[in-house]
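note to self — DONT lose this again. spent like an hour looking for the file last time. sequence + predicted structure for the chain T wanted, 426 res
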Amino acid sequence: MSARRVVGAATAAALALGASACGGSGDGAKASGGFTYWSMWRADEPQAKVLKAAIDDFTAATGAKVNITWAGRDIAKKIGPAIAANQAPDLWDESDDKVYGTTAAADQALDLSPVLQLQVPGEDFPVSQVLPAKYFDMLPKDPSGSNHYVIPYEIVTNAMFYNAADPAIAAAMPSPPTDWAGLLKVCDALKAAGKACIASEGEDPWSNALYFDYLLNGAGVNVSQLAADKSGATWDAPAVLTAAQQVEQLVKGGHLIEGYDATKYPTQETNWASGKAAFYMDGNYVTAEVAKQVPAGWKMASMLPPTAKTPDANLIGFASPKRAKNAAAAQKFIAFFLQKKHLAGISTTALNLTPRADIPAPAELADVQKALDAPAVRLGFDGVSGSWLPKVLNENYLDLWHGKTTAAQFVAKCKADQVSYWQTQG
């Protein structure tokens, strides 16, 4: 899954779900313990295969029928109308931002806290002991005060990926740099060796702005608080300008791959996978995306930008409409799927990360897993949602990233646009 398909700011509820809207299971749910389930995956995707195997085992073990629909990526557009029409499934899955934006923010998501108290079948301890609380702590609360509207089974995080077996990278970076000056030295050494430091999809504000996001995190600046300041005064903080200047150093130093500002995804991902640049910032799913492109001997590694304090995380997991008719049966399945023997397939078959610390990550994601072992995680851009990113940050950041504006001009323009933005928000 790519950032362009999974992550991104959550929007306000897709439809206004009034108090009269009532959820309910669609066709096929049985009073005997069955339930309906809509999944974001297509039937031919690895995650679907892992889920299907668990569903078959669940039915064999309990006799409960699961009416599954492999709905694909449009599921978030379908769930609101389905709730309004009383045709919603008992269970669905999506990324945390889409669950929040389409249902939880409108108080239409069921609080799944009871799942945490259920026993993981065959493992003699509750779900709460296999799902770290930090993944819930980072989420915004719904109007009812709950941040348990999604139960994760897959974790996505963003980092700078590189080939540790590349001699040029090994020579330039004997060990990961601990500060920004160290990263610039690595970039200078790579440039001298004839290799670009960073591959960038130049027209993608989200992945490129992750450098700025992580730099702000390292400086103690919360992007959500920055965005919420209606006066714009927070943009005047010296740490904000410093972070922008550090980004500017990458641009002015010639450390971005040639032609980055005139290409679109996946051009530069492909160039990076062929060894034309050292680093590529993206979600951990990129390792699976390029698995068939990278040359033999490639050793996938990753690191956070120097000074970053807290890794970001995005959850993919289960959710239920607030008035699901067969919620109890669906919750039993959630606990069933979180068994190590089933959930491990997300790592071994889908080649992605799980929230369980006792399930080893794929070898390509070992560094990412180490980063996620941190005591806390955070949402990318500290969970900023709605239209602030496209209205204030995105285009201004691309101008900085493309060398069209200076760091000081970028900060001033964002401040001015943010003041105007909040004036239009009522």
